[in-house]
Amino acid sequence: MVLCGMILSVLLGPFLFPHAYDLPGEQTYAPPSLVHLCGTDLNGRDLLLRILKGGRISLLVGICGAGISLIIGTSFGLIAGSSNRGVDNSMMRFVDILYSVPRLIFILIFINAFNERLQLAASNHGWDWLVGSSRLVILILSLGIIEWLTMARIVRGQTLTLRERSYVDAARVLGEGYWAILWRHLLPNLAGIILVYLTLSIPSVIIDEAFLSFLGLGVQAPQSSWGSLLAEGASSINPLKGAWWMILFPSLALLTTLLALYSLGDTLRRSISAK
Amino acid sequence: MGEDFLLHDIPLVKQATPRPHTPFILQVSVYKLHPFGTMLRRLTSLPVVLFCVVTITFFLIRLSPGGPFDSERKLPPAIEKQLLAKYKLDGSMLGQYTGYLKDLLHGDLRLSTKYRNRSVNEILAQTLPVTLTLGATALLIAVTTGIWLGAFAAARPGTTAEGGALALTLLAISLPSFVLGPILILIFAIKLSWLPVGGWGSPMQLILPAVTLAIPYAAVIARLLHDSLRETLAEDFVRTARAKGLSERAVVYRHALRVAILPVISYLGPLAANLLTGSIVVETIFHIPGAGGFFVNSILNRDGFLLGGVVIVYCVLLVIFNVLVDLSYRLLDRRIRES
User: Fold this and answer.
1) Which of B1, B52, B228, B266 to mutate to test the interface with A (most CBs of A within 10 A)?
2) Is residue A169's pLDDT more than 80?
3) What is the pLDDT of residue B72?
């Protein structure tokens, strides 16, 4: 419910505002009022509108990034779980090592190293849409690249138990190949658990995106996300003027979304494991 | 960062193939022969991991377009050449790479290109203790609070206390440090003025950042421990302990907790990695002069050797910490089969 509301308001909300709300105005740092429900920012822009627009980016990154992590994690886990012991061991050891390395730090370097190259390539080929949002594309790709570890572990664990089932033996006896068994027999049985962990990895990707944007190394102006709004808010509090609304409202938006996604995933997970 | 609370999951389908049963005496002897071998193998994999880390970092930095001196006004070619030579950025890419490896082996992390005339070793020697103090305090808070809350919830199955505790952990997990930090500052530093807004030096200044850093991970640990303790409490030896007439307190805290704590121990490795990453944000929020701030600046300034230095030192620390965690895990759980 909360989730649907959040998605709908993020998609449709910005159309309800008069255009002037998005332009720099005279009232800078105005506290919340009836005209500006969440107050205004440094440039006098309406904060509620900015939050809704930022939500689009945050949710887009979350869903696409989780989608990429789903593809990598599922294939990695499936292959590890259905291979022989040696391959399985070394593949899972690789996952263990990645777990204990600060992956976000590498992603930071990665984004910086490849952003300008992609931008250059995009403008050379005349892909105009990519020039403006190259950073976003790189961000989504790289977050997908680091978030697949848990998915791989879970899928591999399930594959290990599923491969012992009699229908897999039956398929093998009937002469079906390795990939056919993976695709036609194991994957459909994994669909439920994959869906659950997809729900749980969307908020993780959103948090990571907000982390990067907070440091000023993720989404950058003119685009904004909840993370970059929070960064603005955090830089605008000091003992002299506490622009509390600049922090409170973006935090609330982020918090509600994460909480809704986490509790949905958690409920789904518990209901599956209770069966 | 966020995915960790589902890291150790309750098994969804009980393992279809039972573990091969080894006679008890044999198991013990296997343990006594092997842990050293395993440790040795882990320790030999350390240089391999570090080598990969160094290589990846070096090429990611050197292959990114633009050099460290590009942003300034155009330098005369002679001076630029001299600068490049001073910072060992001349010659072929392969030559630079092997040169860097050689310097690293001598423990020299080279000079920072932004903070002129300061070596990366010097900068890290000043900033790393700050980050490590913050990280260690946060680790301590996360582990103690998490264990306490997890045991508290698991010891009261089906009550509102358990439900409340679990809801609280879910809320805490959804509160990333960059949300929590500013909120805590607003409440405790600005409205109540109990604690300083930021800075570094006094123990009072340590409290807010350490708590900010620790809270989400305390919640992760609480959930982990709760799930594993619930499972342990259903096992036979717990029933035996209860049948002996031990108090519920003794059953939970003395007998079951000892077994249920194992997933928490193996989570310490990833936790340390997350705390080091998370401390970058917390240092920014609270204006703490730690290594994290230098890390962010070194990316923005294209300060390659400083960036490489921070990453490499972080990874060395984490790999060593992981080996220690692994060792203590093995000491604690002698039943673990050698892989």
Assistant:
1) B1
2) no
3) 56
List the single residue in B13, B277, B296 with the smallest CB-CB distance to A102.
B277
Q: Give the residue from chain A lying closest to B320, CA to CA.
A: A100
* C-alpha to C-alpha distance for B219 and B131, rounded to whole angstroms: 22
Write the CA distances from A220 to A54, A132, A139, A215, B142, integer angstroms.
11, 10, 11, 10, 33
> A interface mutation test: which of B12, B277, B307, B313 has the most A CBs within 10 A?
B12
User: Residue A255 and residue B285: Cβ atoms within 8 Å?
Assistant: no
Which has the closest alpha carbon to A170: A184, A155, A160?
Answer: A184
Reported as half-sphere exposure (CB side, CA atoms, 13 A), residue B311 has a value of 31
Backbone angles phi, psi at A46, to 5 degrees: -70, 130
| CB pairs A-B closer than 8 Å | 163
Q: What's the pTM value of the predicted model, to 2 decimals?
A: 0.77
Tens of pLDDT, residues A219-241: 776 777 877 887 777 776 655 55
DSSP B34: S
CA neighbours closer than 13 Å in the CB half-sphere of residue A179 = 0
CA separation, residue B68 to residues A181, B64, B113, B116, B305 (Å): 53, 11, 7, 12, 10
